[in-house]
C-alpha cells in the first residue's frame, strides 16, 4: 500500500511538472518552463524511486510499471478536468476502460518468477 501511495503522490508532482505550465506558463521563455518543470520533477523522483524499491518483490517490474501507468492516467484525468478545465469525452473513457482491462490481465494471473 505504501508503494501505491508514493506512486500516486509522485504522479501528482510529475503531472504538474509536465503539464502545469500549459495553463500559466505561456508567457514564460522555454528555458524557464524547463527549469521549473525539472524542479518539480525532482520531488517526483524523490517519491517514485523509493516507491519502486519498496514495491519490487511484492510486485514484479512489469506490475510496478502497469500500476504506475494506471495511476498516471487517473491523476491526469483529474488534473485535466479540474486544472486545465478540459471535458472528458466518451472516447477517453473507452480508452481508459481498455487500459483497465489490460491492467486486469497483468494481475489476474501469476507472473513467472525471475530466473
- Low-confidence residue ranges: none
Mean pLDDT: 90
SS summary, helix count: 5
Distance between the first and last residues' Cα: 26 Å
How many distinct domains?
1
Share in helix: over 70%
* Sheet/helix structural class: mainly alpha
Number of strands: 0
**Roughly what fraction of the amino acids lie in strands?**
under 5%
The biggest sheet, with number of strands, parallel, antiparallel or mixed sense and barrel status, is: none
General form: flat
Cα gyration radius (Å): 16 Å
Can you write the helix and strand succession as a string?
Answer: HHHHH
General description of the model:
With 115 residues, the protein is mostly helical. The protein has one domain. The protein contains 5 helices and no strands. Helix 1 packs antiparallel against helix 3, helix 1 (2-19) packs across helix 4 and helix 4 (61-82) packs antiparallel against helix 5 (90-108). The longest helix is centred in the middle third of the chain and has 26 residues, at 30-55. The radius of gyration is 16 Å and the shape is flat. The two termini are 26 Å apart.
Amino acid at each position: 500500500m505504501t508503494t501505491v501511495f508514493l506512486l500516486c503522490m509522485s504522479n501528482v508532482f510529475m503531472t504538474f511538472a509536465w503539464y502545469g505550465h500549459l495553463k500559466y506558463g505561456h508567457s514564460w521563455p522555454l528555458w524557464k518552463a524547463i527549469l521549473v518543470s525539472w524542479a518539480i520533477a525532482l520531488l517526483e523522483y524523490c517519491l517514485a524511486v523509493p516507491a519502486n524499491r519498496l514495491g519490487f518483490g511484492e510486485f514484479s517490474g512489469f506490475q510496478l510499471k502497469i500500476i504506475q501507468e494506471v495511476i498516471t492516467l487517473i491523476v491526469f484525468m483529474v488534473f485535466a478536468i479540474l486544472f486545465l478545465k478540459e471535458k472528458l469525452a466518451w472516447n477517453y473513457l473507452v480508452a481508459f476502460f481498455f487500459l483497465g482491462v489490460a491492467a486486469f490481465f497483468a494481475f489476474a494471473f501469476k507472473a513467472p518468477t525471475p530466473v
